[in-house]
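Review form for a predicted model. The reviewer records the input and the model, then writes brief findings.
Reviewer: anonymous (R2)
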Amino acid sequence: MKSHGRSGKKRTGGRRRNVHKKKKHELGDSPTETRVEDRKLKVVETRGGNTKVRALRTDVASVADGDEVVQATIENVAENGANPNYARRNIITRGAIIETSAGTARVTSRPGQDGQVNAVLVE
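Model under review:
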């Protein structure tokens, strides 16, 4: 289980004994790697009783061209600056260049956090 608490080791390499167990607010989660496939969303509970929608898989993007926004189907990920392997595995993150039915676009939203893909056409 991932934790954002203090490390169990001191700077010197010695062991640091736990003062308390892992608290829920210290726990982390692995990143949501949104793939290009049929749409599948996941609702996650967050702090304060709120919820967050994560896109596990999606094949639709809202592509903006100036003032006009069009729903386009995602064909594949052309390149991804976050990780070259993400482009090979068709994983969408913010800043990724995707090929859509409307043309080549750059993703401006965070699909793993927002649950949707927003993009701007690249000329």
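Findings: Residues 34-121 form a domain with the Structural Genomics Hypothetical 15.5 Kd Protein In mrcA-pckA Intergenic Region; Chain A fold (CATH 3.10.290.70).
Further findings: The CA atoms of residues 23 and 85 lie 34 Å apart.
Recommendation: see findings above.
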